[in-house]
Structures are given as structure tokens and as C-alpha cells.
Prior knowledge:
Layout: E1 4-8, H1 12-29, E2 38-42, H2 45-53, H3 57-73, E3 78-81, H4 90-93, E4 101-102, H5 104-115, E5 119-123, H6 126-130, H7 133-139, E6 144-146, H8 150-162, H9 171-188, E7 192-195, H10 206-209, E8 213-215, H11 216-229
Parallel strand pairs: 1-2, 1-3, 3-4, 5-6, 5-7, 7-8
Amino acid sequence: MKKIGILGGMSPEASLEYYRLFISRAKEREREGRYPELIIYNLNFEDFCKPVSEGKDDQVISLLRGKLAALEDAGADFALMASNTPHMYYEKLKEDISIPLLSIVESTADVASEKGFDRVGLLGTEFTMSGEFYRRTFEKRGKEILVPEKTEQEYVHEKIMTELVNGKILEDTRRRLVAIIREMRRSKGIEATILGCTELPLILSEKETGFPVLNTTEIHVEAAYDMAVD
């Protein structure tokens, strides 16, 4: 089984979920006692978040490049970033390391195609919802990405950054997020919703929405596990 390098800390709550899911998958798919080798670099969330918010892209890319290189030096056979937002820099980063970098966006687009979803809603940070990296990837597959209205985007971003990254799960927030998804289904005709922030699955699932969701954390872990055992 290949060694999996995980660049985490964006936020730590999601990194914990990645680790839990990898162990859970091993229990489901492997013989007893056989678990994947994981190398986790948990960077300081503030070191990532602050320059992203200030638009200092070169600084962010340099930071991420260095941490991915550390995973490579530690013996990882391939790497993944345990967060959606840093995938805005994916195209630049994948060329800077010699091991494969598994994209959460590509993996999610693959699953959307498998399930036959053509019009897909996207929730995430403001960088993810307003960025082009999800839209471009899905358009290549003939899929359309739709996002909430501006005020709702601001609400989703604020709740991610002030609550979810700190492990705060509030019922009022859950209800509002579900209402946003249902309104997108009614007004925009979406067939599923991408939980395009690895903290969103901590508060949302199909059980709450009553509507298909694409859990990017689970999708990314599943793709990485397949890559590790291939």
C-alpha cells in the first residue's frame, strides 16, 4: 500500500475527520490490523488563512509548496490537501512536486459525473464559491456549477470561518444552511449540492437536507484510498 501524505491544518477539525475516515475505510476494506500509512503535516491555520484573506497568493503558494515538499521528503508516495480552498492554487502546486497531488475538485467532479448530476450547487468559503477552480473543472465534463446569492455566500463563509473551523456546531446555523440549499434547489434547479468545504460535512448531510449532497471530504478520502491500494 502506498504511503499517503496529508497536508492538513486548514482547519484542524477537517484534518481530524480525514484521519478518522481513513481508519474507518481500512476497517471496512482491509483485513484486521491492516491500516494505511499516513504522513500528516498539520500546518498552522493562521499562517495559511491570513495571507489568503489578504490576497498574498505568492506567499500562500510558497507556504503550501514547502509543506508538500516536506511530505515528499518524508516518504509520501502521493499527497493531498485536506481542504477545498487551497485548491485554488492546485495547478501551480502540482507542477512543483515530483509526487502526484490528488485533487479534491477532480475527485468530486468524477463522482458527480458517475451519479449523472448536471446542475450542481456549491457551498464553501468565499474563495471557493467565487473562484473558478470548481467551475472550470466541472465545465470540462459538461456540468454546471451554481452558487447561492451574494448575501447567502457571505453567511456561509462567516459560519465556516467563525464556527465550523473551531468545531462549533450550532443548530441555528444548520437550519439556515439547509434552507439555503433548498432555496437553490427551488430557484436554480440544482440536482445536488457540493459540500465544498471540508468542515461543512461536520454539520450537513443528506439526512438534514433530504437532498443529494457531495461530501468532498469522504470523496477525497475514498479516492486517496483507492490510489494507495492500486
